[in-house]
Amino acid sequence: MAPMKITLFLLLFLATFTYAKTKLGHHKEIEMTIYYHDYAGGPNATTIEIPRPSTGHLNYTRFGAMLCADDPITEGIEKDSVPIARGQVIYIISALDGSYAQILMSVVFINGKYKGSTIEIQGSYDQSLVTVPEAAVVGGTGKFRLAFGYATFEIVSYDSVTGYSLTRSNMTILHY
To answer: d(Cα 139, Cα 141) in Å, to the nearest integer?
Structure first.
């Protein structure tokens, strides 16, 4: 009797899995390059440390430091490119020596063909500048429902006087 119950359960499971797979269809793959424009200083700062540092300078390497960002994202590299999204990010410096941070990021599309959709990114972020950091795409909404993949982040330029940095992100995303 027990083997028959197991067989029936397996048949039911396979039927449900097959039905779910046919309903979702095949993955679509998208490769995109976007640019984060981060302003870490001045009256229009898009990144802050929580709580705000008394010195006025952000600390990207102090163990336990937490930063929050809401950066404009563009398709073009120029500062005055039309924003297509916002990069809403929480960074927590998670390595004792400050070399790694945990990131939780939502790429919230505000213009263009993906308007109203999001891409969710999470992972350990290597801040050493020796390698190009990579993080996992762990989900999404709208046109990126059930997304997965990866994103790389490469600092293109940084101005220590103004606190402005430009980061290029190449993403490979699979979704339904």
So the answer is: 7
For residue range 94-139, list pLDDT tens digits in order: 999 999 999 999 999 999 999 999 999 999 989 887 789 999 999 9
CA atoms of 45 and 40, how far apart (whole Å): 5
State both tokens at 161: 């006087």
Backbone angles phi, psi at 58, to 5 degrees: -75, 145
Q: How many domains does the chain have?
A: 1
* 21 located within any domain: no
CB 91 within 8 A of CB 64: no
Q: What is Dmax (Cα atoms) for the chain?
A: 76
Report yes or no on 55 lying in a domain.
yes
Give the separation between CA 75 and CA 2, rounded to whole angstroms: 59
Structure tokens at 116: 């109203």
For residue 31, give its domain range. 26-175
Backbone φ, ψ for residue 36 (5° rounding)? -95, 130
- Is cis: bond before 43, omega within 30 of 0? no
52 contacts: CB under 8 Å, gap ≥ 6: none
Contact assessment for residue 62 and residue 84, using Cβ atoms and an 8 Å cutoff: no
Is residue 155 one of the residues assigned to a domain? yes
Residue 18 lies in a domain: no
What is the pTM (predicted TM-score) of this model? 0.81
Q: Which CATH number does the domain housing residue 145 bear?
A: 2.40.480.10
